[in-house]
Structures are given as structure tokens and as C-alpha cells.
Amino acid sequence: MVVYPDWAALAPALALAVTGLVLLLIDSVDPDDSRPGLLAGTAVVGTLVSLGYAGWFLASGTGQVDGGTGAISLYRDALVVDGMALFFQAVFAVVTALVCIASYDYLKERAYQAEFYSLVMFAATGMAVMATANSLATAFIALELASLPSYALVAFLKHNRGSVEASLKYFLIGALSSAVFAFGISLVYAATGSLLLADVASALSALDGGLTGVAAIGVLMVAGGFAFKTASVPFHFWAPEAYEGAPAPISAFLSSASKAAGFAVLFRVFTTAFPLDAAGVDWMLLFQVLAVVTMTLGNFAAATQETVKRMLAYSSIGHAGYALIGLAAWSGGAPGSVENGAVLGASMAHLLVYGFMNTGAFLFVALAEQWDVGRTFEDYAGLGSRAPMASVAMTVFMFSLAGVPPFGGFFSKLFLFAGAVDAGFWWLAAVGVVNSTLSLYYYSRVVKALWVDDPVGEFELGGTPTGLYVAVVFAAVGTLLLLPGFAPVIETAQSVAAALVP
Amino acid sequence: MAAFDYAPAIVLLPFVSFLVSLGAALYGDDVLPKGGALAGIVATAGSLILSLWVFFTVSAGNVYNQTIYTWTTGAGAAGEEALELTFGLLLDPLSSMMLIIVSLVALLVHVFSLGYMNDEGETGLPRYYAGLGLFSASMLGFVVAHNILMAFMFFELVGLCSFLLIGFWFREPGPPSAAKKAFLVTRFGDYFFLVGVVAIFATFGTGRFAGAESFPVLAEEVLAGEVAVNTFGFAPTTWFTVVGLLVLGGVIGKSAQFPLHTWLPDAMEGPTPVSALIHAATMVAAGVYLVARMYGFYAVSPTALAVIALVGGFTALVAATMGVVKREIKQVLAYSTISQYGYMMLALGAGGYVAATFHLLTHAFFKALLFLGAGSVIIAMHHNENMWDMGGLKDRMPVTYWTFLSGSLALAGIIPFAGFWSKDEVLYEALVHGLGTDGGLGTIFLVAYAFGLLAVFFTGFYTFRMVFLTFHGDARTGQARDPEGVGWNVKGPLAVLGVLAAVTGFVNMTPVADLFDLDIEYLHRWLEGPEGVEFMSALSAHHYLELLESDVTGIHAAELDPLIPGGVSLLLALAGVGLAYALYGRGEPEEYTAKLGGVQDLLYNNYYQDEYQVAIAERVVLPLSRAADKFDQSGVDGVVNGVSSVSLFSGSRVRRVQTGLVSNYAALVTLGLTVLLVAFGIYGGWLL
């Protein structure tokens, strides 16, 4: 049996980084983007390799407790590869692959394609590292690595005022949040004298009373930094603008993968570095407040939007609220116990399902942008008869996002809410259910426009962009396959989540 | 056992014939020879052959109780077994006997339909045969069901099929309305049944009829204090009675017992062969069969038994009196059906499991015979059903007459025809258990017995009033003088059933056995089941008797010679027949009922059962529904509409926060963070 070196466990992240470099290399050989297929193909292959590694490691037990090697620590504990990291890396890889496939059509006739793909790859690399970050320093660096390319990507349509404006706002809020985050880290370091999560935890437990306030402010500010990445209240203001202004595939990328990355590092940092009883802040209460406010605000705002893309942007905020339940109802039971993993794992599974359905929904918007049918709900009227396959896929996404059976989103929400109830937070689940009910209203508006409403005027669809179609249909199939395949997903997610706290 | 491997085909064959006919019905009328009848005949004949095979396999001492398909498995709470919802077969003496009854009657009805439907040039035949096929399949599936949920599903299918077939002539005004009535009234009972099914699953965690883990066995063990189940805060006896009565709701609806019997006479609007099927072997029999199937559960609940016995006895008498004044031949038969099923319920309630099964068996044959005979008469009379327009058909249609007479003698309970033996045993069981049991239960049995005994007289009377009016005397109309001939496909089934109606009673001649000390109670022995099979011991007649005589139930039989009560009931039946002869059998019959005055009106209107039920619906249910609707419209909808407008309003407020100015956002982010810091700082105690 071949013994691989430990750093090989980073293969999912390395694959993405290498792909980004290869893309730059191709660009230097062929600066005119004369072969867009090659660029897109390289990017897709790179993400699929990353996905393959993540899936293989997950299946073979690398970094996992059950039948595996146990968590692999690298570079003096700065990085750690465990089941949760691999799970999230798989999510990122899937979303990135879908985005790259869809971008092939979206970028047709546009300049700087190689730069686009390589930026996506570097952002994805940053996310993959975020999932493995085991120290506050690496968390910060990885978060910046994921963010900086994103700012550029949002502004990719640089002759489009909306795109540029959105990027600037995103960048400014991002800079503010990074400052808050970095300040928070420094306060935590001041109180504990370490940046490694495990050391922070032990130092916090043994903290001298006088420094509690310092550490607590630090913890809250760190939470703020993550709230920016996950687009949670009150750091969510950039999200609607950025998602709306950005090219639709990038909106998909940001709202699915980038958000999931935020959650990956959020979950790890809070469960391992800040023990509930010693952090000085009742962060479960914090996340309960944030979850309720975030999901309510997101859903309420989404209900009154006129354009589909902005509605999806707000719904994405709402889903961040659902995912926060994973921490808000974290029971903090005995280390490694099942109860620990149940609700956190459900939250992770929800992010996976969300990766499919939300990416798919934004890609459908990309498709509509490609056809130039318009942006509002009314403009989508009659698409059902002209593009039935894509419309069926969009219908699946909408119902799945709303959490209607029998789609993947139903099960993930079910487990999430059930986990919250089991942990004793039935009111959290109740708020979630009420919000889901409200969300059905605006999601079904899209479905109604697609199938029921008559088109306002005559319009022609300009051809069928193959890549976009493939990506949309693949996402829909994924959403549907997560129905029968949900059992292994939730089991994996819950077991790796249970293993998070040693 | 090979027979058991093929047993699912008993159900599937008629289902396939349903599919074939359905395909034909969808495709167009004329693709199948005989409109699909042949497929149905072949399928039910196949079912009959397989049923016989199963019967002989069972009589060789083999029984079968297996799950075939598990369609859902629950997660199962901690420490409890997961709930499983399954399909499976239970083939024991009771079900294998019932299989033969159902498949035989279904086959004969299919054949008879050739004469009644095809030869009369009806349209829509594929639809008709599709209905018959599904009807037979549903009933056969119900019979072999090995758990109560599966039984419930097929029970509902049976109800659906009866709806479809009763309303077969949907272009006329009567049949659709009758079909709806049948559907709704039985559905009313089925609501209780459904709740009962859920209660059984919630209580025992299983719906199995047989086996160590079946609910009747568990109930028995609970009462013996061996195991504990969740009885929802009631004493086990009380709770089991409640559950039993809930299930009984479905039984009362399907088996047309008082007060849910009103659908059945109206159901005569359907084609006559369908009536035969409904009354003899399928729909109505399903209710009684269900009680017999889970008799072990009822046997531990004296209250439920008392209710069953009383409802049965009362129904037997009331329905018999209503049958006395009817003009249409099928109406008389309809009320006789209600009355006869009342006897079966009486027997079940009074602890006569074997007697009830016996009567189910004999009644299936003679009632199918009478309906098919009536169908033959109706063909001859060009679909005029009024007995006052008939008369003198005896000489013109001898096969119909003699077979009909055999069935009538059986129905009236005249020795030695089948009905005598079974009815006698029913009454005997009720009497001995009434005399032997102490307290109120015994009194109730005696009252029920009195009802049943009195009904014997009326049964004899209305049966022979029908025979005399239809076949004897002079023809009263032109139609009766020149009846249309019927073919082999009508006479064949009549002949088969005519013989069976005469001889079926010999399988369990208890009085003769007692008198000559012979061992000829074959049915009794049959229902004891084979020995040595574990689960069979809880399903045997012997075990049921033990349960009844246990301290829980406390039913005991008095020592009594069967000859005297048998003689009494025979005399009463003969008196009824004699009265009918005196009034209608000689010369030109008169409408004596006119002399009854007010009583006649009362009887014609069936004790105003329909009227009071309609009144309940209109005076009580309708205002309640209106009030509920009003509440829904204003209260619930108002809240919902209010919520949505509040949501949209606050949504638009939330939107305004998103001003589009990035400096505002930065300010809000900072403010938000500050609020959180201050709030958690004060809450956490490290700030201020």
C-alpha cells in the first residue's frame, strides 16, 4: 500500500490552485482568448479533479474518525484536513464546476476569459483553504484569498455600471468587515496569546477574569467577519447589490460556494476555538438572534422584489439564516457525541443541497440574461412553453428552495428543523417554518410566471446555450438525486460534524 | 407449499381482467369479444381453481402467514420496534373458505352477466366488466389480507367498486344518486374504521391479524398482564373496547347494519348481477368477515360483543319487518340481506363464531341464487321489477322457479335447506350464551335472541310472499303472460347455486350431530384449524371459545338441547310461510298491506330512517358547515390575508433599509456590530 505524504491531503485545494496557474499559463501563451473551450475545459477538469479527490478522501476515510486516519494536521496545526473540510471542499468543487460550465456560454464574445476562470479558481482555492483553516491567521488569509478575486469577478462586466458599482460596494463593505475581523483576531490573540484554534480554546478556558471582556469583544468581532462572508445580518448589505450587479454565474458562485465557505470556517472556529462556557459571549444566543433576524429579513425583503435576481439575492440571505441554525441550536454535548453533530450536520447538508439548487437558480437567471428576456417576474412569463426543460429545472429549484416535498431542499430543511427541535429550540424551528412558508410565496411567483402567465409581448429566444443548459439541468438532476441520496449525505455530514469537536 | 406460492395470483387474475377491460373501455367498445366478459370469466375461474387448491392445501394441515411486500418501514422510537406497513397473505381455514365463496360467486356472476348484460344489448360493457374485475380482485385481496391496514385499503377499494357499479347506468337519475349514497354512507362508517386502524397501530405497533406479534394476541396478553402497551391513559379493557367499536363503525357501514343500512336498498339501482355480488360475496360480506377475521380482539371485550349482538339482532328484526311490504322483488331481497347479515352479527356478538361463519357461507350461496333468480325474472319481465305485475311465472320459467324456491326455502329457514341449519345455529348460540352468562351481558344476548327469533317469522312471511306473488297464481300482466326466455348462461349459474343452497347446510348439522351423537360438524372442525402450527392456535374456534369463557369476558354457555329451540324457530318460519300462503298463495292476491293503515306508511318509509338522517344532515350538519365556512372565510382567511399583507408591508419597509448608498451600509454595519457588542457585553457582564 502506498503511503502518501500528509500534504497530499490538501489535494482538493491544490488541484484548484494548480488549475488557476495553468489557466494563467495558457493565457500567457494565447493572450487573445481564441480558444474559450480550452479555458472552460481546463477549469472544469480542474474542479472535477478537486471534486474527485474530495469524494475519494471522504469515501476512503481520509481525515475522518470512522475507519480513517483521524484529522490530519499540517504545518504545525495551521491547517487541518478532516471530514468537514472535505465535505465542504466537495461542495465548493461542485458549485465551481457548474459555474465554469455555465460561464462558457455566458462569456462568449467577451474579453479576459482566462482571467475570469483563473480568478474563479483562486477564489475557490481560498474557500477550500478556509474549510481547512485551523488557525485564525490562516482563516484570515484564506478569507481574503477568497474575497479579493470575488471583488474583481463582480466587476467583470466592466462596461456595465451596475456591475462596477456593485463591486465597489462589495469591496468597501468587505474592507470594513475584514478590518473588524482582523481587529477581532488581534483582541483574541491579546487575550489568549495564540492564534491556533485549539490553543485559543484552552487559553480561553484558563482565562484570567480581567481579560474576559477583551476576549469577548474579539469573539464578537470575529463573528462579524464571518457574518460578512455568509451574508448574515448586519453584514449583509453588500449581498443584494453584489448578487444583482455581478454576472449571474458569479452571483451563483458567491451565493452558494462563498457562503458555504464562510459557514465552513465559522463552524470550525466557533465549535473548536471558542468554548461555549469560556468565550465570555453566549454565542449560541448570538447566533440564535442572528439566525432569526437574518432569515426573517431575507425572506421578507425577498417577498417584495420585482426582479428575479434580486429576489434570489435576498432569498440567499434567508438561507444563510437557516444555515445559522446549525450553530444556534448546537447542543454542545459531550465531545464527539451524536447530538453534537446532528444539527450542525443538517446545516452542512442543507448547504450542500443549497449549492445545487441555488446555483441552478442563478444559472437559470444567467440563461434568461443570455436570452435577454428581461429581469422582472413578468418578463419570465411564457418561458415555460418556449424553454420547457430549463423551466422544469427552474421549477424544481424554486420548490426545492422553498422546501416543498419531494425535493432535496425539503429533506435538508426537515433535518435542520428536526435537529433544532431535538436540541430543545422548537421556537427556532417554528420561526424557520414560518419563514419557509413565506418564501413559498415568492418562489412560486417565479413558477407561476413561467407556466401560468401569458407573455406580455412577443419575443424570440436566441438559441440554446449548451453549456448553460447542461449546468442548469445538471443542477436540477443533482437536486432531485439528493432526494433518494439524502441518507448517505446526511449521515456523512452528521458524522463529520460530530467529529469536529475532539 | 406450491399453492401458497401461487396464492397472490388469486387476487391478481381478476385485477388483470380489470386492466384488460379497462384498456378496452379506453380504446373503444368493440375490441373484446363479449365486451370483456370472457377475460373476467377466465380470470375468476382461475381464481376459483387456485382457491380450491389453497383450500385443499389448508385442509392438508398447512397454513400461511407471510409478508410479501414491505412498503414502508418507520424509524422506530428508542426501545421500540420500527413500525412496518406491509402487504401479505394470511391463508387459514377462514380465509381459504371465504376465497372459494368469493371466487365462485364472482365466476357465476360473470357468467350470468352474459345473459343479463350482453344479451340485453347493454352498452358500456367493458366498463361494466372492468368494474366487476376490480370488485372481485378487491374483495379477494381483502380476504387474504394479513394485516388490518391492507384490509382497510382493499375494504375501501371494495367501496369504490360498488360505487362505480351501482352507478353503472349513470345517465338515468336514480343510479348515480344511489351510488353516491352508498359511497357516502359507507364512508361515514369507514372514517371510524380508519381512526380505529390508526389506533391499533398506535397501540400495538402492528396491524397483523395472526402470529405471536399480532394485535389480537397482544391484546390478550395485555389483559393477562404479560405485556404492556400504550393505552392512552385508559384501562386496557376500555381502550380495546373503544378501538373495537371504532373498527366496528366500518363494519356497520359496509355490512349495512342499523343505523347505516339505508344505502343498501337504494343500491338496487345497480345491475342485478352486481347486486348479487354485493350482497352475497363482496361488499356486505366484507364487514362481517372483518369481525370474524379479528375475532380474537373482540372476544376480549364484552361491551363490544354486546353492541355487536344487539345491533345485529335489532337489524335482523327491523329489516325483516320492512321487507314485508315492498313491491319490487329486489327491494324484498335487499331488506332480507340486511336482516340476514344482522343474524351473522348477532352470532358474532353472542360468541357464535362458527355459527356466524356458517351463516356467511350458506347465505352467500342462497342470496346469490335469489338475486340471480330475481335477475332472471327481471329479464323475463323486460326489466319490470314490480311483483304485483308478475304472477304465474312458475310454469313458464321452471328452472328459475325451482332454483328460486330452493333459495327461498333456505332463506326462510325451512329444514333441510342450508339456511335452516345456519340460522338455527345462530339462534341457538345466542340463546345458550344468553342463558349461561350472568348479568347484563346475558340479558342483552337474550334480548338480541328474541329479536332474531321474531325475525324468523317475518323472514318466512316476506320470502314466501315474494315467491307466491312472483311465481304463483295467474299472470297479472301481459308481460307475465309472455315472458322473455333466458339462456344457458342464466340457467347454469342458477342450477349450480340452487344445488348449493339446498345442500350447503349439511356441512354443520349440529342438532343432528347431537341427536345421533355423530361427528359430522365438519365446519366446526374446519375452523379449529390444523394443529401444530403456532399462529393457528390463536385463530382457532376453540381458542375463541376459551377467550369468551375467560374471566375477562365471562360468557358461558348453558346446557340446552338444540332440538327445542330449533323446533321453535322452524315452527315460526313455517308459520310465516303459512301466513304468506294464506294471504297470497291462493287465487288472486290482494294488497293486504293497505289494511295496516299507519303501520303500512311507517314500513313503506322504512321507519323514516332516510328522513331523519337527511334531517340530521340538513338541520345539524349543514348549519355547522356553514358556520365553519364562515369562520374559515372570515377568521382563518382573514388572519392569513392579514399576515400576508403585514408581511408584504414589512417587506417593503425592509427594502428601504437597502438605500443603495454604501456609506449608509457602512454606518449600519458598524451600528449593528455596536448594538451586538453592547447588548452581549451587558448580558455577559463584562461591559459596564
From TrEMBL, chain A:
Subcellular localization, as worded in the UniProt entry: Membrane
GO cellular component terms given for this protein: membrane
NADH:quinone oxidoreductase/Mrp antiporter transmembrane domain residues: 133-439
Main location: membrane
Transmembrane segments: 6-26, 38-59, 79-104, 116-133, 139-158, 170-191, 211-238, 250-271, 283-304, 311-330, 342-368, 389-412, 424-443, 468-487
GO MF terms held by the record: NADH dehydrogenase (ubiquinone) activity
A biological-process GO annotation: ATP synthesis coupled electron transport
Membrane-topology descriptor: Multi-pass membrane protein
The name this protein goes by in its record: NADH dehydrogenase, subunit N (Ubiquinone)
Species: Candidatus Halobonum tyrrellensis G22
TrEMBL record, chain B:
Cell wall biogenesis/degradation found in the keyword field: no
Keyword flag Membrane: yes
Keywords assigned: Membrane, Transmembrane, Transmembrane helix
InterPro entries (alphabetical): NADHpl_OxRdtase_5_subgr, ND/Mrp_TM, NU5C-like, Proton_antipo_N
Localisation per UniProt entry: Membrane
Full protein name: Proton-translocating NADH-quinone oxidoreductase subunit L
Main localization, broad class: membrane
Domain NADH-Ubiquinone oxidoreductase (complex I) chain 5 N-terminal: 83-129
Membrane topology: Multi-pass membrane protein
GO biological process, one term: ATP synthesis coupled electron transport
Transmembrane segments: 6-28, 35-56, 94-116, 128-145, 151-170, 191-211, 231-253, 274-292, 304-325, 332-354, 360-380, 401-421, 441-464, 485-507, 563-584, 665-686
Domain NADH:quinone oxidoreductase/Mrp antiporter transmembrane: 145-431
GO cellular component: membrane
Pfam families in UniProt: Proton_antipo_M, Proton_antipo_N
GO molecular function: NADH dehydrogenase (ubiquinone) activity; NADH dehydrogenase activity
Domain of life from the UniProt record: Archaea
Record-linked PANTHER family: NADH-UBIQUINONE OXIDOREDUCTASE CHAIN 5 (PTHR42829:SF2)
